[in-house]
Amino acid sequence: MPMRRWLASHSSVPAADLDDLAQEAFLRFLRYSDEVLVEHPQTYLFRIAANVANEWRERARNSRPHDDVWLNDLQIEAAEEPENAVARSLVHEHVRAAVQQLPQRQREVLLLHVLDDLTYVQIAGRLGLTRRMVKRDLALAYSRLRWELNTVDL
Amino acid sequence: MARPRDPKSALISEEAAEWFVRVKDDHLGAEERRQYVRWLKQSSTHAAEMLRMHQLARWLRNANWKDR
């Protein structure tokens, strides 16, 4: 199976669909007052997005049974698809290759953040960098990877 | 590397990435959380970028790292 198709169906929400879902989640998010949202902004956003995904999945199940696989990905920690190990390892390889292309310091900082679960403050302490530099490196690394990996034409 | 089509998109994803890091690592005070709510409410693109950041973080964690 071509990697693009595998990614589209398993590991990513197709760009247009994610935009639609975000649009609907955004409209619902707007209905809550700042006073309510301010306690746990992110929790609200993700709960709302998960609700929208669930509703759409429910709807899709009734109409287009095989077309809704991507919605599963919006479960906060969806179970990994058990099948197609070869395609999955290609995707993993693709993700790792994108990380390898980052400038050295961004890569180092990112891996400490993702794999060792260190905070940017801890990373700064470990590498002898300022907090500001590390936070900046992380923001640049994540946003570069976002464009590298979320483009449709993989 | 792939690049967004316009500088504005790049800026929004950098902002999303920075919020992602701050929310994950800092204990945000009430005023910062208010800023974050304001940022999220500014445009559906902001909300979409934040969802993408979490999707990306999951890909990264699951990428089956053996060595670095």
Notes on the structure:
The complex is a heterodimer of chains A (154) and B (68). Chain A is mostly helical and 154 residues long. Helix content of chain A is 69%, strand content 0%. In chain A, α2 packs across α4. Chain A starts with a helix and ends in a 5-residue tail after the last helix. Chain B is mostly helical and 68 residues long. Chain B is 74% helix and 0% strand. The longest helix of chain B is centred in the N-terminal third of the chain and has 19 residues. The two termini of chain B are 20 Å apart. The model of chain B has no long low-confidence stretch (mean pLDDT 91).
Mean pLDDT of chain B: 91
> What does the oligomeric state look like here?
heterodimer
Distance linking N and C termini of chain B = 20 Å
Which regions of chain A contain 5 or more consecutive residues with pLDDT less than 50? Answer: 1-12
Strand content of chain B: under 5%
Largest sheet of chain B: none
Q: Whole-Å distance between the termini of chain A?
A: 13 Å
H/E element order of chain A: HHHHHHHH
Q: Helicity of chain A, in percent? A: 55-70%
Q: Give the class of chain B from helix and strand content and strand pairing.
A: mainly alpha
Give the SSE layout:
The complex is a heterodimer of chains A (154) and B (68).
Chain A: H1 3-11, H2 15-31, H3 34-37, H4 41-63, H5 85-100, H6 104-114, H7 120-127, H8 131-149
Chain B: H1 7-25, H2 30-42, H3 44-61
Jot down its keywords:
heterodimer, A: 154 residues, mainly alpha, 8 helices, 69% helix, flat, disordered N terminus, B: 68 residues, 3 helices
Brief description of this entry?
The complex is a heterodimer of chains A (154) and B (68). Helices cover 69% and strands 0% of the residues of chain A.
